[in-house]
């Protein structure tokens, strides 16, 4: 029986905040499998901030939206990928995908499919969050670039999100004082009371510079930046000598047209005077070491030192709403769509 797949395509390039007419749900009939191919059926799909940015450079109008999912093999012409196997696949916003397992890696050198990390008792969607790309981002982006030491002060923005909530907890495990900024009082309550952050500040109701002076009177040693823009400059002004800034994301700027970014004066003086180190990264830099991060984070979860949360949307037809919701801050922890 031919399989009818549903997929979301980019109908129009985004201009500002994504809107319904930019994304369209279409159906396609999939062909018969050839040798070396598998048919994946989506179980859980990820919506991530990078989709807003890279749609422009990586997709043409009419292309399927990029993205990862946990899929189950439901038909196979590859002996190494039996029916029932769970895989994490970069196959885009699709209910069903035919994958040639010998196909080369994606644009970033990431394999198209890899086996899901076994996580007994946990939903498969953890492969899209704490034991997936956001988990690796938090782990390596913090530990490799900020190199936090016990007793130091670590600040993280978008602190109740997929990456930020893990960054703060890892910094606590390393013995740091952690200050998290998030966009609602409920999110702040979660990261302070359940995740153990030392300070949780609602950046929508408090002035960032003033609240940071109060929470970190002796200055900031590490800043894990998920937000960019003015937020970054504000924290930079309160960094201590030899402070480290891990530039992970710039979500406050993703709805702007990056070709028309206003040029400001780069705050080089702050870097020079305080001898700061500031480095951007893409988490696939450490792709070969991701299993190391997942092993350690799974052990921390078992010991009760690391917690995660997911905000789930039910139904593939609601991918678009889940994506908008994540961009505007509706999610706590990782935003996923369960099929
Ligand atoms: N460099 C890399 O390899 C990677 C980078 N990233 C980056 O990390 C960041 C977090 O990603 P992820 O954890 O997946 O997403 P989140 O789960 O944190 O979701 C995005 C969050 O960003 C916050 N936000 C939205 N708009 C703004 C704004 N204007 N100012 C401040 N906060 C805002 C919202 O929370 P709130 O309610 O707090 O505003 C929202 O919930 C993103 O910038 C992303 O691009 C992610 C993965 C890999
Ligand atoms: C200015 C945008 C910063 C985006 C930061 C971010 O969220 C990065 C996420 C990457 C994650 O670590 C692994 C990925 O697959 C995400 C990036 C995908 C990049 C596609 C590049 C396409 C292109 O070459 O244009």
TrEMBL record:
<dbReference type="InterPro" id="IPR036291">
    <property type="entry name" value="NAD(P)-bd_dom_sf"/>
</dbReference>
<keyword id="KW-0963">Cytoplasm</keyword>
<dbReference type="Pfam" id="PF00107">
    <property type="entry name" value="ADH_zinc_N"/>
</dbReference>
<dbReference type="GO" id="GO:0006693">
    <property type="term" value="P:prostaglandin metabolic process"/>
</dbReference>
<keyword id="KW-0597">Phosphoprotein</keyword>
<dbReference type="Pfam" id="PF16884">
    <property type="entry name" value="ADH_N_2"/>
</dbReference>
<dbReference type="InterPro" id="IPR013149">
    <property type="entry name" value="ADH-like_C"/>
</dbReference>
<protein>
    <recommendedName>
        <fullName>Prostaglandin reductase 1</fullName>
        <ecNumber>1.3.1.48</ecNumber>
        <ecNumber>1.3.1.74</ecNumber>
    </recommendedName>
</protein>
<keyword id="KW-0443">Lipid metabolism</keyword>
<keyword id="KW-0560">Oxidoreductase</keyword>
<keyword id="KW-0379">Hydroxylation</keyword>
<comment type="subunit">
    <text>Monomer or homodimer.</text>
</comment>
<dbReference type="InterPro" id="IPR020843">
    <property type="entry name" value="ER"/>
</dbReference>
<keyword id="KW-0521">NADP</keyword>
<dbReference type="InterPro" id="IPR045010">
    <property type="entry name" value="MDR_fam"/>
</dbReference>
<dbReference type="InterPro" id="IPR041694">
    <property type="entry name" value="ADH_N_2"/>
</dbReference>
<feature type="domain" description="Enoyl reductase (ER)">
    <location>
        <begin position="19"/>
        <end position="337"/>
    </location>
</feature>
<dbReference type="InterPro" id="IPR011032">
    <property type="entry name" value="GroES-like_sf"/>
</dbReference>
<keyword id="KW-0276">Fatty acid metabolism</keyword>
<dbReference type="GO" id="GO:0005737">
    <property type="term" value="C:cytoplasm"/>
</dbReference>
<keyword id="KW-0007">Acetylation</keyword>
<comment type="similarity">
    <text>Belongs to the NADP-dependent oxidoreductase L4BD family.</text>
</comment>
<dbReference type="GO" id="GO:0047522">
    <property type="term" value="F:15-oxoprostaglandin 13-reductase [NAD(P)+] activity"/>
</dbReference>
<keyword id="KW-0644">Prostaglandin metabolism</keyword>
<dbReference type="InterPro" id="IPR014190">
    <property type="entry name" value="PTGR1"/>
</dbReference>
<dbReference type="GO" id="GO:0032440">
    <property type="term" value="F:2-alkenal reductase [NAD(P)H] activity"/>
</dbReference>
């Amino acid at each position: 029986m031919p399989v009818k797949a549903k997929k979301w395509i980019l109908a129009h390039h985004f201009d500002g905040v994504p809107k319904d007419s930019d994304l369209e749900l279409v159906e396609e009939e999939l062909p018969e499998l050839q040798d070396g191919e598998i048919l994946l059926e989506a179980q859980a799909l990820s919506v991530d901030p990078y989709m807003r940015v890279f749609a422009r450079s990586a997709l043409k109008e009419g292309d399927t939206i990029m993205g990862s999912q946990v899929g189950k093999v439901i038909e196979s012409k590859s002996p190494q990928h039996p029916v029932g196997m769970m895989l994490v696949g970069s196959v885009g916003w699709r209910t069903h995908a035919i994958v040639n397992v010998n196909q080369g890696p994606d644009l970033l050198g990431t394999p198209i499919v890899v086996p899901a990390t076994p996580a007994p008792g946990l939903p498969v969607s953890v492969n899209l969050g704490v034991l997936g790309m956001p988990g690796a981002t938090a782990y390596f982006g913090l530990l490799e670039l900020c190199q936090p030491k016990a007793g130091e002060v670590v600040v993280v923005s978008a602190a109740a999100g997929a990456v930020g909530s893990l960054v703060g907890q890892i910094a606590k495990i390393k013995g740091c004082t952690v200050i998290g900024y998030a966009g609602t009082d409920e999110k702040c309550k979660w990261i302070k009371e359940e995740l153990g952050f030392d300070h949780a500040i609602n950046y929508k109701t408090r002035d960032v510079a003033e609240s940071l002076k109060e929470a970190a009177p002796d200055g900031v040693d590490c800043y894990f930046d998920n937000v960019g823009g003015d937020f970054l400059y504000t924290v930079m002004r309160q960094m201590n000598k030899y402070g480290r800034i891990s530039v992970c994301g710039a979500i406050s700027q993703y709805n702007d047209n990056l070709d028309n970014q206003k040029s400001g004066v780069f705050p080089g003086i702050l870097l020079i005077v305080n001898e700061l180190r500031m480095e951007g990264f893409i988490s696939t830099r450490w792709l070969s070491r991701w299993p190391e991060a997942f092993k350690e984070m799974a052990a921390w979860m078992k010991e009760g030192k690391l917690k995660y949360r997911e905000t789930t949307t039910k139904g593939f037809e609601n991918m678009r709403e889940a994506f908008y919701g994540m961009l505007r801050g509706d999610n706590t922890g990782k935003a996923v769509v369960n099929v």
